[in-house]
């Protein structure tokens, strides 16, 4: 009788254990759980990538400093940047040229019309308009 009770208890415990394991696996494979796990992995990968990029930048800055020191180029960068700027004031564009440049019509005559151009047979024609289908009816 004790043997039967032992095996009955062992079987019940094994059934409960197996049922619990199966239920956990089913819950972990649910779409929302998979999406949450994927999002966590993506965030973790982003953090790793950011740390890597910061390490690379720090290494680049360190190596650049070493190279500048070795080549004797350790002058401040700000002085070089301002030295490249032109000394005098910029000359302004004439008003008419400024207007045509602003409107995107540089190279057109003041009226804004396109010049006539020769067609494929060498005759002068007016420029094509997007709605002009040039159909023979």
TrEMBL record:
Residue stretches of biased makeup (Low complexity): 102-116
Pfam family, one: DUF6167
InterPro entries with a match to the protein in the record: DUF6167
Annotated segments matching region Disordered: 67-137
Name of the protein this chain belongs to: Secreted protein
Gene source species: Streptomyces qinglanensis
């Amino acid at each position: 009788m004790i043997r039967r009770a032992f095996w009955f208890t062992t079987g019940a415990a094994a059934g409960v254990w197996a049922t619990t394991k199966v239920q956990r696996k089913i819950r972990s494979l649910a779409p929302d759980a998979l999406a949450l796990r994927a999002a966590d992995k993506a965030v973790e990968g982003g953090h790793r990538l950011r740390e890597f990029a910061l390490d690379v930048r720090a290494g680049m800055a360190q190596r650049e400093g070493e190279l500048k020191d070795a080549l004797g180029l350790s002058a401040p960068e700000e002085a070089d940047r301002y030295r490249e700027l032109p000394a005098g004031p910029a000359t302004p564009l004439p008003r008419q040229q400024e207007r045509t440049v602003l409107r995107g019509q540089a190279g057109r005559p003041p009226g804004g019309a396109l010049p006539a151009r020769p067609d494929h047979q060498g005759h002068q024609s007016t420029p094509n308009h997007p709605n002009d289908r040039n159909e023979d009816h």
